[in-house]
Design a protein that fits this description.
There is one protein chain. The protein has three helices and three strands. By secondary structure, it is α+β, with helices and mostly antiparallel strands. Strands 1-2-3 form a three-stranded mixed sheet. A hairpin with a 3-residue loop joins strand 1 and strand 2. It is globular and about 40 Å long. The N and C termini lie far apart (56 Å). The relative contact order is 0.14.
Length: 103
């Protein structure tokens, strides 16, 4: 019984932690971050994307979201992620994120 309670507690703490991180990341770019920040991130992660591999980069280009302000918020997050120069695990490829320009 203690193990099950401990697992639930750890799961709860991880969920709260993820929510706080999401809100902090989205807040500067999205006015409704408190209410919709998690949904915004989920929408971006579930949207269609193009992946291109170059000699030095793994480029992920997301499709625009359902509204311009949501797309702009995700584009701003992409820029922040690009500044971290994160390497794709197990490779020497730098991850680069962008949002497609609306046609």
């Amino acid at each position: 019984m203690d193990t099950i309670c401990g697992m639930f507690l750890v799961d709860f703490i991880l969920k709260v932690h993820r929510r706080l991180i999401t809100q902090r990341a989205v807040e500067p770019h999205y006015r409704r971050a408190d209410d919709e920040g998690h949904t915004l991130i989920q929408s971006a992660l579930m949207s269609a994307a193009d992946i291109e591999v170059t000699e030095k980069e793994l480029r992920v280009t997301l499709s625009p979201l359902s509204s311009p302000h949501r797309t702009q918020a995700i584009a701003a997050l992409c820029e922040e992620l690009n500044q971290t120069a994160t390497m794709f695990p197990g490779s020497r490829l730098c991850l680069r994120f962008a949002v497609k320009a609306d046609a």
